[in-house]
Each structure stands twice: as structure tokens, then as C-alpha cells.
Design brief:
The protein is α/β, with parallel strands linked by helices and 199 residues long. It has a single domain, classed as DHBP synthase, CATH 3.90.870.10. 27% of the residues lie in helices and 22% in strands. The protein contains 6 helices and 11 strands. An 11-stranded mixed beta sheet has the order 1-2-9-3-4-8-5-7-6-10-11. Helix 1 packs across helix 5. The N terminus is likely disordered.
Length: 199
């Protein structure tokens, strides 16, 4: 059964996980805004190459573009179009934390859009350990923008109901599923130094 609002579609009791993922991936490819479970909270995502979608997501979040965004992926290959590699030792240390709830700041490629990296020379990226989020990235064939499903400075949503209450029909589709067991959003670390930027 799918409950519909003027814009938003919420998948409920869909017998096939593959079907749910296919519909969510179509939402991403069509330029939509999707809410989906991650390691700690529901995330808001869209196609990182679609400027219109990203700017709409920022309006929903009430988040200024200069702050930049996080990208998540099913594997590192989905992130390589957006970031430069560090030396072998640093990359080995980074890969040892993935898949997992650690986000790394890596040098952004020269052509990585400003609507992703904001005012920074780096981009925040993560290979997600959440099975639904990883499967979504794989189904969509791309890394995804990932930011908590809430208006900035308000509590992030941990359930699909909280997403609906907080954001209503501003979100085009919700991929329903349980969040992971992490009690807080991902730790963010500096790729060059390994230092924790956000605990």
C-alpha cells in the first residue's frame, strides 16, 4: 500500500524490497528528494549532480549552500568522480573505517560543484554501512547527497513518521526502514590528518 500526499509517496507494506529500492532509485534519477534510513537517523538525499534538486533540498533544510554537504556511496568507486586521492597510507587508514559511520573530508576534484562542497576545498564523503542506504546508492547508480531529514537546528528524524511530521509533502518519497543503532550522526574526520572534526 502507498499513502499519497500532494507530492510525497511513502512505501508501506510493499512485499518486495527490490521494488521499494527501484522506486526510490527512480525518484533520485527523476530529480526528486528522498528520505531514507541511515546508520543513525533518516537522511535526505538527491542526485548530487542535479543542481536543481540539491538547491531544493537546501531550501527544505534551510541550510546555506556555503556549508557544503555529505555524499554517501555503496563503494568508493561511486565517490571517485568527486574527490582526489590522498597518499597510500592515508587512503589505507580511511578505507579501514569503511563501510561504516565515519565521514572523511577529502580534497574535492576541480570540477566538483560548489553546491556540494560549499566554500570548502574538501568534500565530506562516506561509504555507508547501512544496508538500505547502500542498496539505494547501488540501485541509483550514483553516490547520494546525505543530510539529516530535518530543518536545520531541529532534532533529526529517526522514523518515517517523524519525517512526515517534520517535512510533510516537501519530500517526494520515503524509503521506509529502520535506522541503524548509532546514537548520533556520523563522526567527521580530516582526511589529511585523521583528526576528528565532529565527534
Amino acid at each position: 500500500m502507498t499513502v499519497k500526499s500532494p507530492r510525497m509517496k511513502i512505501d508501506l507494506d510493499v512485499p518486495s524490497r527490490r521494488h521499494k529500492l527501484r522506486m526510490a532509485a527512480c525518484c533520485i534519477r527523476d530529480g526528486g528528494i528522498l528520505a531514507y534510513p541511515t546508520e543513525a537517523v533518516y537522511g535526505l538525499g538527491c542526485d548530487p549532480r542535479n543542481r536543481t534538486a540539491v538547491q531544493r533540498l537546501l531550501v527544505i533544510k534551510r541550510r546555506p549552500e556555503y556549508k557544503g554537504l555529505i555524499l554517501i556511496a555503496a563503494d568508493f568507486a561511486q565517490l571517485t568522480p568527486f574527490v582526489e586521492l590522498l597518499d597510500a597510507a592515508r587512503m589505507t587508514a580511511i578505507h579501514a573505517t569503511w563501510p561504516g559511520p565515519v565521514t572523511w573530508l577529502l580534497p574535492a576534484c576541480a570540477d566538483t560543484p560548489g553546491w556540494l562542497r560549499g566554500r570548502h576545498a574538501t568534500l565530506a564523503v562516506r561509504v555507508t554501512a547501512h544496508p538500505d542506504a547502500a542498496a539505494l546508492c547501488a540501485a541509483a547508480g550514483t553516490a547520494l547527497v546525505s543530510t539529516s531529514a530535518n530543518v536545520s537546528d531541529r532534532p533529526p528524524a529517526r522514523t518515517s513518521l517523524r519525517v512526515r511530521l517534520a517535512l510533510g509533502s516537501q519530500v517526494d518519497r520515503i524509503l521506509v526502514g529502520p535506522c541503524g543503532t548509532s546514537s548520533r550522526p556520523s563522526r567527521i574526520c580530516d582526511g589529511h590528518t585523521g583528526a576528528t572534526v565532529r565527534a
